[in-house]
Amino acid sequence: MPKQPLSRFAVALIELALAVGGFAIGTGEFAIMGLLPDVATTFDVTTPQAGYVISAYALGVVVGAPLIAVLAAKMARRHLLLVLMAVFALGNILSAVAPDFLSFTLLRFVTGLPHGAYFGVASLVAASMVPVHKRAQAVGRMMLGLTVATLIGTPVATWFGQVLDWRVAFMLVGGIGALTVLLIWIYLPRDKVADGASPMRELTAFKRPQVLLTLAIAAVGFGGMFSIFSYIASTATKVALMPESMVAVIMALFGVGMIIGNIGGAWLADKSLMGTICGSLVFNVVVLTLFSLTATSPFMLCLCVLLVGCGFAAGPALQTRLMDVAADAQTLAAASNHSAFNIANALGAWLGGLVIAWGYGFAATGYVGAILSVFGLMVFALSYRLELAAKRA
After folding, report:
1. 321 neighbors 214 (Cβ within 8 angstroms)
2. CATH superfamily assigned to domain 204-393
3. Which CATH architecture has domain 1-197?
């Protein structure tokens, strides 16, 4: 970033530009879930087969985040953000005109590649513009675009896709991505590559135990959110016996919870970083257990879904923690955080599906999430103990 300090207004414009990118990514990632039947009809495949495109995108996120962070180690952050969002925008636009299911699936994989790297680099940029004691709040404001997407972007894109054509939804997301490129080009000042930056230096992040442990906390401890979220429609209609029309309301409550968690968690993280991570895990254990115990009650189901969304409070805290423990390999560590959350997504959905298949019912997904959070607490305890030992040494 430039040596001259930026005005508060300039910082706000940059944060807005970065948040618009997060809004585009969040909308593109989740809108497909409501459009799978339409995609299946277009390409003459079954809905479960159409679900492969979700897995392809997630795989792109997991692979792309560390790969891009290493290969682009010598790129200035502004230039890298422009390239990443341009690839994302183009990938969505090409997805909208894909001629067959194979090309569509491959394009979703390619479109997922910039996801983690974008959020990682954007987090570093946001944190670099504010005082150290306000870093998490800056990261939270950048990530606000992602959380708002779950409340507004995804429902709107899904509605357009269902009323007009699913291809329109991807065109819309591509357009927002293109807008982000323009905003970053206008508002984010040019910067220089850090001295000594190299792929090998970035790879040293994975040699640091605290980096690996922090990523493990995200990958294991927060799988519960996705265990519930993946099957929430069936839980609402088959366990709480709510009408299908309420599923949209429940999804909106989850989005509201994520926004509350993101804002509150970022503020708390600047007060106590480790306390916020630990507190979020304990909070998840309680809420996820309560979800399973009270899932037959429509009111309690709605309340628990809102609270589960609040568990996203750990997002800015974990991102900031990685900045602290990665030393001079911050890009790889920060980008890998989103790979870890996508692993949590896959792990939570898989384990939740297993429990349902074994006959324990949809409500049992909460217990799965609570157990994962307990494992996350165990990893956190190990990380904290090693940190204390290092300080005493």
Report:
1. yes
2. MFS general substrate transporter like domains (1.20.1250.20)
3. Up-down Bundle (1.20)
Alpha helix (H) ranges present in 164-222? Answer: 166-187, 199-203, 209-221
Q: pLDDT tens digit string along 320-373?
A: 888 888 877 777 777 888 888 888 877 887 888 888 888 888 899 999 999 999
**Residue of 384, 30, 82 lying closest to 213 (CA atoms):** 384
The pair of three-digit structure tokens given for residue 334, joined into one six-digit string: 């920060």
What's the pLDDT at 353?
84
Tokens encoding 33: 């879930």
Domain residue limits, the chain: 1-197, 204-393
* Whole-number CA gyration radius for the chain: 20
Closest CA to 277 of 218, 229, 205, 346: 218
Query: Residues for the chain: how many in total?
Result: 393
Looking at the chain, list the stretches that DSSP marks H as alpha helix, in order from N- to C-terminal side.
8-43, 47-50, 52-71, 77-96, 101-128, 135-148, 154-163, 166-187, 199-203, 209-221, 223-229, 232-234, 246-271, 273-294, 298-310, 314-325, 330-357, 365-392
Which pTM value belongs to this model? 0.82
Q: How many CB atoms lie within 10 A of CB 367?
A: 19
Question: Is the predicted pLDDT of residue 3 greater than 70, yes or no?
Answer: no
Q: Write the pLDDT tens digit of every residue in 131-175.
A: 888 888 888 888 888 888 888 887 788 777 878 888 998 999 999
Structure tokens at 146: 């992602």
